[in-house]
Amino acid sequence: MKHRKTITTLVIILFYLFIQYKYFIISFVAGIKFTSLNEHGIILIGYIISLALIFIPFLLLYDVKFKTFTDEFGMRANFFISFVFILIASIPIIIGLLFNLKDSLNLLSYNTIVTVFFAAIMNEFVSRAFLFGQLFRRGGWGFVQAAAIGPVFLGMKIISNTLDPLIISISFINVLLMGLFYAWLFIEWNNNIWIPMGLHIFINLSWLVFENGEKSCFGSTEGIIYRSITIFISIVITILMCVHRKKFRINKLNIFAWK
Q: What is the mean pLDDT of residues 68-93?
């Protein structure tokens, strides 16, 4: 069993690194002469190829069944309950969008679809369901270790973009806390990928509207308030749900402990 968990860990991390740092994939797509594709189109195809590559480790580690894949990725969770939760929790951001949505912003534009929707979908499938989910549920990692490894890798990318210690520190803390937040929701809602994915989309959209798409480590006061209230509502609802069912799936037995 221990040998199996070690193999699972190595396979998952190696594939995650290849998919997350998809320079080879994007370079491959860019090298093909798609004359009608712009930068966002190339990134979009890179996302699709990256998601398709996730099937490979499942072919190596598990039996090849569609149900297995959807179970492991939290796709069989109740979509209606997830939608209601996302809608209620995101009310602050929705209200802010109604008052701040610019006439020039097209929610169905290539840029918005790629940077808001597909980025969130890609991140949740790859970082949450794939990397975190497999390390925590199958690799025997503690919750914090499994949830933090993705943000650590992302933090390395932040360092490559700037050497300012303040920006690096604030950005890393923000990425780490959001990673823990999304992973906690994923597990507490019974391996439900739709809830963190939906919230991720709304939070990405808030960055696009309130911060003019500039994902600095600070953000505007208005944007911070809307996002903070949304996160607070999400946490309160989730805690109330856990109290009602009389069980927290993340607890002292697995928050740090290796299995």
A: 91
Is the CB of residue 121 less than 8 Å from the CB of residue 197?
A: yes
Burial of 253 (0-12, 13-18, 19+ CB in 10 A): exposed
User: What is the reported pTM?
Assistant: 0.86
Q: Which of 120, 124, 123, 145 lies closest to 135, judged by CA?
A: 145
Q: How far apart are CA 51 and CA 93, in angstroms?
A: 28
* Mean pLDDT value of segment 15-38: 56
CB atoms within 10 A of CB 188: 20
70-74, 107-111, 119-123, range with the lowest pLDDT: 107-111
Contact 199, 227 (CB under 8 A): no
For residue 93, is pLDDT > 70? yes
For residues 213-237, give the mean pLDDT: 83
Residues 6 or more apart from 178 whose CB is under 8 A from it? Answer: 151, 203
Long-range CB contacts for residues 225-230, cutoff 8 Å, separation at least 24: 225/92, 226/92, 226/93, 226/95, 226/96, 227/93, 227/203, 229/92, 230/89, 230/90, 230/91, 230/92, 230/93, 230/199, 230/202, 230/203
